[in-house]
Design brief:
Layout (H helix, E strand, L loop, with lengths): L3 E9 L2 E8 L8 E9 L2 H9 L8 E2 L3 E9 L11 E4 L9 H4 L21 E4 L1 H6 L1 E3 L6 H4 L2 H14 L6 E5 L3 H11 L5 E6 L2 H9 L4 E4 L5 H8 L5 E6 L4 H7 L3 E9 L13 H6 L3 E4 L5 H13 L8 E6 L3 H9 L5 E5 L1
Helix pairs in contact: 5-6, 5-11
């Protein structure tokens, strides 16, 4: 049996290299997984384009995947060779100031548990993830849907912060992977009205399929005018920004109702500054909430929704390719072709 594997490395922004390296061996508490399905994501694309402050290049690449247990390290319980698994790419320490307050997404040791290298035949799952955020995948759930656990966990955190009610009009700005996941999940909360501002025929069609009540074509329509028309001039009770655009961050507050909540989900590059009308925030009682990453309860909620929530997320995956086609796939994404691709090592 071969002791080597194919693995993709991001050498520098814009440069991916496929290397043959040894299959890792598990340390204490670790698992080696055979990757069945890896998924591209917006963070990977940003890293491909400009690098990432938490990633030292060259680096193994990719972090959304599902697969099977290939090898099990000492002191691992509950998993054995051949088990199907689903996971996320980090885990909280459970002991720091933030973890003890329930703010696991801000864990002081989070960066030490990050797992990269899903664009490969095999991947090492670190002990913190094995012990806290690794789950069995039921046979009823496809590997493709199971690989969505990580981004869906982020979305569950955002929805928990937004706390939409059935009396709320919700405006979601952006219909990439995250925006479309928000659309699918928000519909299960039955808001009074779910409005999505999107660009591109494919994204508009999926937003409609996932349950948006109204989809505004952001490339053609006036979002502010249409939101006011749809809300009798009141604005949306909850506005979720998922584009990661400074211009959209600043514009988003204009769509909010009085006593509204603005969820700033799409991250901006380090050092970015935004400007808001302080009078509007103060006198209209508008709450601005940044949302980052996920907590264990969000991961658990995401898994439960994937297994029992009745949502079908396959339309997010534009196509599937082999690991050898990864460079081509990222050229597609860089040219804004497709939404999300499945990579099959």
């Amino acid at each position: 049996m071969s002791k080597t594997m194919q693995a993709a490395f991001l050498i520098e922004p814009g440069k991916i290299e496929l290397r043959e390296i040894p299959i890792p061996e598990p340390g204490k508490g670790e698992i080696i997984a055979k990757v069945h399905t890896a998924l591209t994501c917006g963070t990977d694309l940003k890293t491909y384009r400009r690098g990432h402050p938490k990633v030292t290049l060259p680096s193994p690449f990719g972090h959304e995947f599902s697969g099977t247990v290939y090898d099990v390290g000492q002191d691992v319980n509950g998993f054995k060779e051949g088990d199907n698994l689903m996971t996320v790419f980090s885990a909280p320490c459970g002991n720091c100031y933030f973890c003890k307050r329930g703010d696991e997404h801000l864990c002081a040791e989070l960066k030490n548990s990050l797992m990269f290298g899903a664009y490969a035949e095999y991947i090492r799952i670190p002990e913190p993830i094995v012990s806290k955020n690794l789950f069995s995948k039921p046979h009823s759930l496809s590997f493709r849907q199971a690989a969505l656990l990580e981004p869906l966990s982020c979305v569950m955190h955002g929805i928990d912060e937004a706390s939409p009610s059935e009396d709320d009009t919700v405006l979601l700005i952006g219909a990439g992977t995250i925006g479309l996941l928000f659309t699918a999940v928000l519909k299960t909360f039955h808001p009074k009205k779910l409005i999505v501002a999107a660009r591109g025929e494919e994204r508009i069609a999926i937003a409609e399929k996932f349950g948006a009540d109204i989809v505004i074509d952001a490339a053609k329509g006036d979002i502010l005018k249409e939101v006011h028309n749809l809300t009798d001039g009141m604005g949306a009770n909850v506005v979720i920004e998922s584009t990661g655009s400074k211009e959209v961050w600043e514009k988003s507050i204009e769509y909010s109702s009085k006593n509204g909540k603005l969820i700033l989900f799409g991250g901006l590059p380090e050092g970015s500054s935004v400007t808001y009308d302080a009078e509007r925030i103060h006198y209209d009682h508008i709450r601005l909430q940044g949302v980052f990453h996920y907590r264990r309860k969000d991961v658990t909620a995401a898994r439960e929704l994937l297994i029992n929530g009745g949502i079908h997320l396959e339309p997010l995956i534009t196509d599937e390719y082999s690991l050898g086609d990864l460079k081509k796939v990222f050229r597609f994404l860089d040219d804004k072709q497709g939404i999300k691709y499945a990579i099959l090592p």
